[in-house]
Design goal:
Layout: H1 9-21, H2 26-56, H3 64-70
Helix pairs in contact: 1-2
Length: 73
């Protein structure tokens, strides 16, 4: 799938510099940035849900050693 993005000249220069710095094509740089953003937002939503659960459970936690035993580590 192909798409286009309108950038100002300054935005294009910044994006092109970033791509060159990381040895990426401009398209790959945008693709990488998009998926990193999606992953970051997913991580935040997972954290928010886990934190809500922690708060709803009365902020109970346990030592990491208990988790390791539970997982046979």
């Amino acid at each position: 799938m192909a798409f286009s993005i309108r950038l100002t000249e300054q935005e294009k220069q910044i994006a092109s510099s970033y791509a060159r710095l990381h040895s990426l094509s401009l398209g790959e740089a945008f693709k990488q940035a998009l998926f990193e953003k999606i992953e970051d937002e997913y991580d935040i939503s997972v954290y928010d849900e886990a934190y809500k659960e922690y708060k709803n459970d009365g902020e109970k936690s346990r030592p990491i050693e208990e988790l390791w035993q539970e997982l046979d580590l």
